[in-house]
Design the sequence.
């Protein structure tokens, strides 16, 4: 279980990006964070694996506080948190298979990682994962030759290679067409159910969020304004989440993308 | 803001006007500098054909110059070796410096400034000046030429490599960090594969460039094909000197063709 408690983030002085953020995400569920652009969705997600350093609070993954971890502990924790991105962020001249194998880097010695020394088991597993996301035949293709949807599935396979407890998805479908969107979201939902993973997704498509998520976290101007099951989201709640910022200053605090 | 209210005609009229002004300024600069150095355009142009004819008469290799082919080819080979080895050594060191100095991969911000400054110092001293400075310490030898080319190339490539690495999308490295990769793994599994083909292009370009410069440096350091050219030239053996020029041109063109092929293969 992921528990975020009183998370706080300021950029510069007095520019609050996140203010007293509390929410939980359960294994086996898809949790979606929704809210207007610049509300702080990306900041929350990247605080969870500490790609962004926050200013206060607790982030408990199975009762271990990620914020207290030192460098090598953080590396171990990150190894079990997969992440996929809007721009896929694969190493494009490398093959799909090599990118999936990168999921093992967190468990490897520096030397073995640098020289790409992967065991036969690891290679077999990477290939099996590519088959699982329907890309077995593209294993030896350079990633920049794959379509957006295919690259995102390679990204998912890379995350799965980490044997994750949780997968963070930062706007995973923002650059995808409807067909690829459905494929990717179906895979993510299936992973939550079958492997009992925590799936935490940033989304700006409300319809997709309501269709796929079990649990919704609504955020506006860095503050949580709603948390509950997706069935409980009605027009009133949406209005609260997407209400215009009443102070023009708050639009400037946006620090997404 | 103002342009929003312009009609297209007005907009393009302004464009043309601006172009006209730039051309006029260039013409004035040309005219003024011509007067200053006492240069007469037409008279100088008239002299060109006669000069070319003299050049061709004297520098065209003859049957006699074939006898010089042996030593010329040997020196050409040595010059090529100096150019290639200095470029390869400089690119290896340059890559390390670039990784340490690029904004995205630098472990220490202070190091960045030092490397930037050092690289631009090395780069902005012309290779001829390098050769002359180094002559005092290392005498007339191939090694002096090697060092002169090495320093200049190091400055140039460090800068080029740094910029290539900085152009890389930082998010890709963040993705590897998120996986749990450490610094060295990010560099070797992420940065290097992404920039490899661009860096190879730079190295090939520098090899071409350094072959040309190596002949020039050779004149100063008294080595290689540059020295031979100088030697024949000063002893009035113009045909042999012409043969050297021809062979250098052939070698450079061959080198360019191969490197184009290599670049296409790795792109």
Sequence:
């Amino acid at each position: 279980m992921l528990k975020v408690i009183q998370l706080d983030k300021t950029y510069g002085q007095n520019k609050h990006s996140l203010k007293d953020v509390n929410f939980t995400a359960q294994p086996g569920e898809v949790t979606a964070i929704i809210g207007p652009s610049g509300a702080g969705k990306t900041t929350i997600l990247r605080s969870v694996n500490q790609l962004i350093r926050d200013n206060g609070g607790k982030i408990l993954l199975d009762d271990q506080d990620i914020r207290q971890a030192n460098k090598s502990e953080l590396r171990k924790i990150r190894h079990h948190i997969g992440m996929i991105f809007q721009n896929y962020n694969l190493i494009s001249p490398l093959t799909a298979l090599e990118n999936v194998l990168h999921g093992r880097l967190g468990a490897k010695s520096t030397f073995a990682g640098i020289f790409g020394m992967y065991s036969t088991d690891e290679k077999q597993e990477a290939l099996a994962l590519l088959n699982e996301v329907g890309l077995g035949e593209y294993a030896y293709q350079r990633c920049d030759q794959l379509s957006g949807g295919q690259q995102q599935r390679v990204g998912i396979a890379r995350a799965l290679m980490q044997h994750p407890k949780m997968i963070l998805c930062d706007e995973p479908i923002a650059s995808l067409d409807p067909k690829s969107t459905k494929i990717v979201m179906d895979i993510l939902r299936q992973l939550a159910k079958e492997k009992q993973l925590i799936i935490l997704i940033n989304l700006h498509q409300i319809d997709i969020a309501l269709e796929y998520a079990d649990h919704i976290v609504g955020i506006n101007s860095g503050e949580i304004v709603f948390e509950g099951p997706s069935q409980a989201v009605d027009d009133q709640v949406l209005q609260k989440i997407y209400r215009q910022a009443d102070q023009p200053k708050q639009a400037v605090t946006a620090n997404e993308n | 803001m103002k342009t929003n209210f312009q009609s297209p005609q007005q907009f393009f009229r302004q464009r043309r006007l601006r172009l006209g002004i730039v051309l006029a300024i260039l013409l004035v600069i040309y005219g003024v500098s011509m007067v200053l150095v006492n240069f007469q355009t037409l008279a100088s142009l008239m002299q060109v054909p006669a000069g070319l004819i003299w050049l061709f008469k004297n520098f065209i290799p003859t049957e006699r110059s074939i006898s010089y082919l042996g030593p010329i080819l040997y020196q050409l080979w040595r010059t090529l070796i100096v150019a290639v080895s200095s470029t390869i050594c400089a690119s290896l060191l340059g890559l390390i410096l670039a990784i340490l100095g690029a904004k995205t991969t630098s472990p220490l911000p202070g190091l960045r400034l030092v490397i930037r400054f050092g690289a631009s110092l090395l780069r902005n001293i012309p290779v001829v000046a390098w050769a002359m400075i180094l002559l005092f310490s290392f005498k007339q030898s191939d090694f002096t030429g090697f060092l002169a080319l090495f320093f200049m190339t190091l400055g140039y490539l460090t800068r080029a490599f740094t910029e290539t690495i900085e152009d890389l999308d930082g998010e890709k490295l963040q993705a590897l960090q998120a996986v749990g990769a450490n610094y060295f793994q990010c560099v070797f599994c992420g940065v290097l594969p992404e920039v490899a083909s661009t860096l190879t292009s730079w190295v090939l370009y520098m090899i071409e460039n350094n072959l040309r410069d190596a002949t020039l440096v050779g004149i100063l350091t008294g080595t290689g094909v540059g020295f031979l050219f100088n030697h024949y030239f000063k002893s009035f053996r113009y045909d042999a000197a012409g043969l050297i020029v021809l062979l250098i041109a052939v070698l450079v063109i061959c080198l360019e063709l191969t490197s184009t092929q290599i670049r296409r293969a790795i792109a």
Summary: The mean pLDDT of chain B is 90. The interface with chain A takes residues 169, 171-172, 174-182, 184-185, 188-190, 193-194, 196-197 of chain B (CB under 8 Å). The radius of gyration of chain B is 25 Å. Residues 204 and 258 of chain B are 9 Å apart (CA to CA).
